[in-house]
Amino acid sequence: MQRESDTLVGLNVGTTKITVIVAGRDPRFRDPVKVIGIGSTPSRGISKGVIVNLGDATECVISALKDAEHIVGRRLDSAVVAFNSLDVESIMTHGMVSLGGREPSRVTVSDLERVIETAQSRLTLSNNTLSVHTIPVHYTLDERPVEEPLNMTGAILEMTLQTVSVPKTNAQNVITCVEDAGLHVEGLVLKPLAAALGALTSEEMRVGAISLSIGGGATGLVLYSAGRPFKIMSVPIGGEHVTTDLARVLRIPLRRAEMLKRRLFSEDDEVLRQEGIDVKLALEVVASRLEELFLDHVQKPLREFDLQMFPSGVVLSGGVAKTPGISDMLSEILQLPVRVAVPGDLFSPMPPGRDDTGYVSATGLLRYMLYRQRHSHLFIEPTYTELRTGERSSLMRERETVRISETERWNFKNLLDTVKERLRD
After folding, report:
1. How many CA atoms lie within 13 A of 344 on its CB side?
2. How many other C-beta atoms lie within 10 A of the C-beta of residue 163?
3. Got the DSSP string for 245-256?
4. CB burial class (10 A; 0-12, 13-18, 19+) of residue 195?
5. What span, in angstroms and rounded, lies between the C-alpha atoms of 415 and 418?
6. Cross-strand pairs, 50
7. pLDDT per residue over 70-116, tens digit each?
8. Helix H segments across 73-143?
9. What predicted TM-score, i.e. pTM, was given to this entire model?
10. What SS3 state is found at 303?
């Protein structure tokens, strides 16, 4: 039986689907984990990436959780959760500390903590805002840029710190939803960052790349340079807006428009025409919405940066990234190379039916958890104690009771195995 400590569990809360991804790892080896199960269910109660009906969203999380538990054959107790939010804000601050007396000293973990605290002290957030990610973006040691200062020698350590914040209520609703479903929240990750970690290779991160994740209700934009994300943005526009446009222009119900969107690029045009669909007009509607997204919400914020910073180009992910011709359109607009990511690029093999770009964010959660375990100062998480409702739901308490009994059974089995080994000796 695989121990809980050898298992990574991620929960991706999306507008179109809820996904629970489970991976196992052998602590004797450095890398990578193996995906052992993915549970998924269509979303309800979520619009533009934000929870609008807590009860419906909780039921969907429970459904995806049960699906994953059926596949892996045991209960899952906690997860790191990817979520979207409106009004994502990315703020840069600067910190500087002396490393000792007159003689240069080696940089310790304590020094890293001190310089982070110094940078954080210069940040002011409103009471209704939560810092989700605190990410060291750039270090200098004695005014020289360094990628990783730990154990290097110098006198003055400086850093640029990125703080990514969201409205506190958005995070509160996510935590309430997940814990009402019976899962303990180990950490929160913004979906644009999860998508970037699932889409970009280490080489692309180091050289410089743009991650663009287009989901059902929101689009995430993450800029990477020198191996670190230095800008994270989210736009409340996604695939559901294409559906709404199709429904309005073609004068058809939303449900039919959603089905049309999925069939538009996979079926023969003649079949759709026989059903009374103006295929040319439908394609123009899709192209018009995507062009607006790329021009107004991707190209425009990129104007403040030199695009030569991103020689690796753009890596697309999310369900909308499966739209034929989308890479060529974006490449022409930005004048950068564009590729579509698939989760198998980083975690292979993926389970059947789960190897398309719509599951990139889920695999990014696994990479985030591995980073967090190996490099505690790369992604610095806040504590979410004050955001929790305090009183556990009955389902949460029930699952915690089962978790204790399962742990006791595993300990007993482990004890028996130890005794048997000693008897053999």
Report:
1. 8
2. 20
3. HHHHHHT--HHH
4. buried
5. 5
6. 47
7. 999 999 999 999 999 988 999 999 999 999 777 889 999 899 989 99
8. 109-120
9. 0.86
10. coil
